[in-house]
Write a structure and sequence with these properties.
about 160 residues, mainly beta, 2 helices, 13 strands, about 5% helix, elongated
Length: about 160
């Protein structure tokens, strides 16, 4: 079964087994909507979640002290793909955009989407071009248009 990453464990928080998460979702509260979470590949129940200015602080079942919490550092927090809600016609999950080829308006290959980032303003596509050079470009109409399974990019936005 395919899994989608919602967060990564950044480290322990306090001495009671809580962990800090770097979120890949829109809010800490969105984690609470999922009955089954996998932390480092192990299914765990979410006992408590709260947002903070850097992401989220959560407590998972079976993680009861700082040592256990530190042991999760770097682990991905995932859900099964089938647990995601359906999307509207013009919406995308970031995971679905990774691997899509990119071309210019004439069809010349420019690279491939290797990641999608959002630092607060809007989604940015990380494009890896020939030779491994990477660029971040806005996922905006006229700059990066998803048409027929590939991105048509405005090459002026590639660094």
């Amino acid at each position: 079964m395919e899994r989608i990453s919602l967060a990564a464990v950044a480290g322990a928080h306090g001495i009671q087994g809580e962990v800090r998460l770097k979120l890949f979702t829109d809010s800490a509260e969105s984690l609470a909507h999922h009955a089954r979470l996998f932390v480092g590949g192990v299914e765990r129940r979410l006992l408590k979640v709260r947002g903070d200015n850097k992401g989220a602080v959560v407590h998972f079942e079976g993680v009861d002290d700082r040592t256990a919490a530190e042991g999760l550092r770097g682990s991905l927090v995932e859900i099964e793909r089938t647990a995601l809600p359906p999307l509207a016609h013009d919406e995308y999950y970031h995971a679905d955009l990774v691997g899509i080829p990119c071309v210019d308006g004439l069809g010349t290959a420019l690279g491939t989407v290797v990641a999608v980032e959002n630092f607060g303003a809007s989604d940015l596509l990380e494009i890896e071009g020939e030779g491994g050079r990477r660029s971040l470009i806005p996922f905006k109409p006229g700059i990066a248009d998803l048409i027929d399974g590939r991105f048509i990019l405005d090459p002026d936005f590639l660094a």
